[in-house]
Write a structure and sequence with these properties.
Residues 1-20 form the signal peptide. The protein is mostly beta strands. It folds into four domains: 3-19 and 200-303, Immunoglobulins (Immunoglobulin-like); 31-60 and 98-195, Galactose-binding domain-like (Jelly Rolls); 308-512 and 547-575, Alpha-Beta Barrel (TIM Barrel); 710-816, Immunoglobulins (Immunoglobulin-like, Sandwich). The longest helix is centred in the N-terminal third of the chain and has 19 residues, at 3-21. Bound molecules: beta-D-galactopyranose.
């Protein structure tokens, strides 16, 4: 979508919000919370004294401030999924951060213009975890799963006049409850929703497009209503607006509802603009609900019109066009911001992924933040939403299996109702590598979950990430999943395809190649589980874990076999926790190395390998490694180029090392150009790329850097919104006098800000670095790091400055509007 269009659309949204306010209000409860770690018997009670507690704004993650400690949540286990046989001390599995324990949040809220009889709900987008929510001293709801959204009608708990209501939330994270950093606290938003007695409940509409073609689409809207007195006539006037705000269909229907069924309306949209990642057009259905001719509620349902089909033998079709998922799996944390959700941070992630050519996201292995799904609708990413990493059998001692029997259906229903109107959501996944897949009765649990999806949303199919290929091919588990998804095991795809009745296969999780940005190991060899004294992995992209593989194999599978549906790479971004291959007794390591983009949100070399294959609209020519190898003169330093062109020639200080052309000798030779016998000499390397006709298309040069001279700052935007939330990511680099990156520089950089905003956090992408994200100083990792600044609520100029010893400092001024 172009930005003008998006702006117009958001404007329309806010106009309809103003209209909606007459009868329905939704208020964000994000300010004026008091927080304390620890347990307090009386903290849900009105008289409790919390004046000494910390004042916080939510979304808030209590654990991201550290400190890192290897003794935080040490798990002595054998990770069978990683093929481990003996229980060993796993360090950094959940990031070495103090997420465990009890924490309390308290605030007070008013219901503006409160009238007796109104229905008031609280909506939690997610609370980590085991949330006990009380209002005015009485428990309103308990919701154990930290990733799910939930809501509760609190009308009967309020004060007489609706003012000064105490809201208290007790959260508890048990140790050994996760395989990665889960975050802690009220890390997503909390909303207060005020409606009339007759109203549309939370997530109360279900919009589908039963027929989609070029000339017209049919749209079916089901609206649930609550508290409609018997025999009352209800009128709903719904207008469908296109992206420019133009009315494209409208209906004004009167009906008496029997047996509490939903109110159904059907529409025809002529010449619809279809939703697809490259042009994610959205519509909205704005409904006005009248009871006895009184306007009682308004409700807006945003949607897209698109047609999804999975065809056996042929693959996945969106709006009639074949495509293979070019997807990534992501965990929910935002690196140095922890789990606390932030729209600007999510948008930054998606912007980088879009440029790489990625078109799909798997929310591994849990429900996402609603803001992420909304952004995927707007920016054009197909989503696979996946609720669980565990069902009834444990992966972690205190994992979700404790709640599965009682809560799985409720958790599924919330996810399905919340996201079944979203255009971006293409597939539901019912789980990831659940141990249940190997038990004789495991298929029954899978069927139970799949049936819930079919019942609540018959328009989408269901997958499941399966890693125990032998089990699931034998015991019937894989055969009953709509879309079989294999995690890794590319070498068994053919067998899966031959044995399964679905005649297609999804790479539900692939690759798990490991690398550290800017680190290169010699000699350059393909290795599994390679470990080095510095606890890093090589960025030649030749290293994977024992269960995983290099990207090239998955590219080849997708290119060669028609029945493959594409893939979701593990992972788009590095995340906190799971520092494989340095997980056993390997402190300090606190974050993953699987990411295509590092924890500081700086692309690794691998980003350009994916870009060269996935982004068909842009030119890619990327060279690695850097060219600062003092002490290695005369020794072999291989040079790789990641490019969309088939051929390139390498020159070192003007001397040709010859042309390389992509070929079928090995999977790597198909997708990379590699000069393995280059001898290092300082100076410059140049790669010249040619198309298939031998025409020169582009060239790139990198040079040996001289002495560190100054700090260069590159901001991802120069303007920010004065909303107290917006973020700008600033890449901080130390360069020589000519601007060449000093790629071996690990200096400490100090930051300061002044004016209309503040320093928020920084990260360098080094999984072994224990610098705290929220302090205004950080070591460079191989010459680079990222500092994040946050806008204030007042407009003005925000100045950011970065200083390091012996180099000229850097300064940047951002406009906060
Ligand atoms: C998979 C698992 C992911 C992550 C990954 C690391 O088996 O589904 O959650 O652990 O391995 O390679």
């Amino acid at each position: 979508m172009n930005y003008k269009k998006l702006f117009l659309f958001l404007n329309i949204l806010s106009i309809s919000f103003v209209q909606a306010q007459e009868v329905r209000k939704s208020i964000l409860l994000n300010k004026n919370w008091s927080f304390s770690k620890g347990d307090f018997k009386e903290a849900s009670q009105i008289g409790f004294n919390d004046t000494k507690w910390q004042k916080v704004t939510i979304p808030h993650d209590w654990a991201i401030y550290g400190p890192f400690d290897e003794n935080n949540d040490v798990q002595k286990v054998a990770i069978t999924q990683n093929l481990e046989k003996e229980a060993k001390r796993q360090t950094g599995r959940t990031g070495g951060l103090p997420y465990m324990g009890v924490g309390w949040y308290r605030t007070s809220f008013n219901v503006p213009d409160f009238k007796k009889g109104q229905r008031i709900s609280l909506v939690f987008d997610g609370a980590m975890s085991e949330a006990h929510v009380s209002v005015n001293g009485k428990e309103a709801i308990f919701w154990p799963y930290g990733y799910n959204s939930f809501h509760v009608d609190v009308s009967d708990f309020l004060t007489e006049n609706g003012q000064n209501n105490l809201l208290a939330v007790r959260l508890e994270n048990k140790e050994q409850s996760s395989r990665w950093y889960p975050g802690a606290g009220l890390y997503r938003n909390v909303h207060l929703v005020i409606t009339n007695p007759v109203h549309v409940p939370v997530w109360g509409t279900y919009l589908t497009t039963p027929y989609v073609a070029k000339d017209y689409a049919s749209v079916r809207l089901e609206t649930k209503l609550e508290n409609v007195p018997n025999k009352t006539e209800i009128r709903i006037e719904t207008t469908i607006l296109d992206q420019s705000g133009k009315t494209v269909a409208t209906k004004n229907d009167k009906r008496k509802l029997n047996h509490g069924e939903p109110f159904v309306q059907n529409f025809i949209v002529n010449q619809p603009h279809l939703w697809f990642p490259e042009n994610p057009t959205l519509y909205q259905a704005v409904s006005k609900i009248y009871s006895k001719d009184q306007l009682v509620d308004t409700y807006t349902t945003r949607f897209g019109i698109r047609d999804i089909k999975f065809i056996a033998e042929k693959g996945f079709f969106l709006n009639g066009k074949l495509r293979k998922f070019q997807g990534v799996c992501n965990h929910h944390d935002l690196g140095p911001l922890g789990a606390a959700v932030n729209v600007a941070a999510l948008r930054r992630q998606l912007t980088l992924l879009k440029d790489m050519g990625c078109d799909a996201i798997r929310t591994s292995h849990n429900m996402p933040a609603p803001e992420l799904v909304a952004l995927c609708d707007e920016m054009g990413f197909m989503m696979m939403l996946e609720p669980f990493d565990e069902w009834d059998k444990a992966k972690c001692k205190n994992g979700y299996h404790r709640f599965f029997d009682e809560w799985a259906e409720k958790d599924m229903i919330n996810m399905l109702h919340q996201y079944r109107n979203n255009a971006s959501v293409i597939l539901w996944s019912i789980g990831n590598e659940v141990p249940t897949q190997c038990s004789a009765d495991g298929y029954k649990v899978a069927k139970f979950l799949q049936d819930i999806c079919h019942r609540e949303d018959p328009t989408r199919l269901v997958t499941c990430g399966m890693d125990q290929v032998s089990c699931v091919l034998e015991n019937g588990f894989a055969n009953m999943i709509d879309i079989p998804g294999f995690n890794y095991r590319v070498n068994r795809y053919e067998e899966g395809y031959a044995k399964l009745s679905q005649n297609m296969l999804l790479g539900s999780e692939t690759t798990s190649t490991v690398s550290s940005r800017g680190i290169y190991k010699f000699p350059v060899e393909k290795k599994l589980d390679a470990k080095y004294d510095d606890h890093q992995s090589s960025s030649y992209d030749f290293e994977a874990c024992s269960w995983s593989n290099l990207p090239d194999l998955d590219f080849a599978m997708s290119d060669d076999k028609e029945w493959t549906l594409g893939q979701f790479v593990w992972t788009g971004f590095d995340y906190l926790g799971e520092p494989s291959p340095y997980s056993i007794n390997s402190w300090p390591n606190h974050s993953s190395m699987f990411g295509i983009i590092d924890l500081a949100s700086i692309p690794k070399d691998r980003y350009y390998l994916y870009r060269s294959v996935w982004n068909k609209n842009a030119e890619t020519l990327h060279i690695l490694p850097h060219w600062n190898w003092e002490g290695k003169e005369g020794q072999i330093v291989p040079v790789f180029a990641y490019t969309n062109y088939p051929t390139a020639e390498l020159f070192v200080n003007g001397k040709s090392y010859g042309k390389q052309t992509k070929n079928n000798a090995t999977p790597e030779n198909r997708y990379r150009l590699m000069w393995m016998d280059v001898k290092y000499e300082p100076g410059e390397i140049k790669v010249v790329a040619y198309d298939a006709n031998g025409t020169k298309k582009t060239e790139k040069i990198i040079r040996t850097a001289g002495k560190a001279h100054h700090i260069e700052l590159v901001a991802d935007r120069t303007e920010m919104q004065a909303d107290g939330k917006d973020l700008v990511y600033i890449t901080v680099r130390i360069v020589d006098k000519d601007g060449n990156l000093c790629s071996n520089d690990q200096s400490l950089v100090n930051f300061s800000t002044s004016g209309a905003g503040n320093y928020k956090a920084s990260a360098n992408g080094d999984p072994t670095c224990l610098d705290l994200f929220h302090l205004p100083k950080m070591h460079l990792f191989n010459g680079q790091l990222t500092a994040i600044v946050q806008a204030s609520e007042k407009a003005g100029k925000l100045t950011f400055e970065a200083k390091a010893k012996e180099v000229k400092s850097g300064k940047i001024v951002l406009e906060v509007k």
